Every structure is written in structure tokens, then in C-alpha cells.
What does this fold into?
Amino acid sequence: MTEIDARTDALVPAWLTLPDVAEKLEVPVTRARQLVKEGQLIAVRRGEGRTLQVPADFIGEGRIVKGLGGTITLLKDDGFSDEEMLEWLFTEDESLPGTPAQALSENRGTEVKRRAQALAV
It folds into this structure.
């Protein structure tokens, strides 16, 4: 879990603390931490208190956005750091259209994973 720079921080529209994530997923905070350790979520230290926070777009209707975990795995396998993954997920891609994070939340994960796999080439 890294601290991100201001440029990457600005790409993410909204953030949730781990207690907020736990509340939205209706799980204990320890489970939210475990989801980060398992690579199902990306959490970074940010803000004055350097608290661990997760992009709010990763949580939808009481669950983690479908396809996020697989996309994170693909990006990690490609050698991406947490910060690089966030930058990729929240940078506009005209061919999608929108950001990969938006596409995941709109159930267009197949296309996002295809692009993530292409990065390894």
C-alpha cells in the first residue's frame, strides 16, 4: 500500500476509507483489509492523516464492481504498481469510451480485461 502523488490522486473522483468500504459491503473492517491484501481492491495512503483509502468507484450496490479483481490481477502480472494501476483505471480511454473504471462499473469488464491483457505484449 503506497502513498500516491497529487496527479494520480486527482484522477480519482471520490475516495472511501476502509471503514466506509466495510460499511458499504456490510462486512467487518478486517474483511475490507483482507480484500485489499487479496488484490480484490486497491488501497493507498492519502490525505493529511495518510489513511488507507479505496476509490469509491470500486464499490457498487453492496459489492465490489464485477471484473475489478481480475483486472487488478492482470495489471499486477504486467508489473503495474498500485499507483500505476489507479492511473490506468482512471485515465480516459476514447476507445472505451470513458475510463476503464467507468467501464467496469457499467458491466463492460470484458473490454477492460482485453485492454489490460494487451498491455503485457
About this structure: Residues 68-77 form the longest helix (10 residues). Strands lie at 15-17, 44-46, 51-55, 59-60, 63-64. Helices lie at 6-11, 18-25, 29-37, 68-77, 82-89, 100-105, 109-118. The radius of gyration is 13 Å.
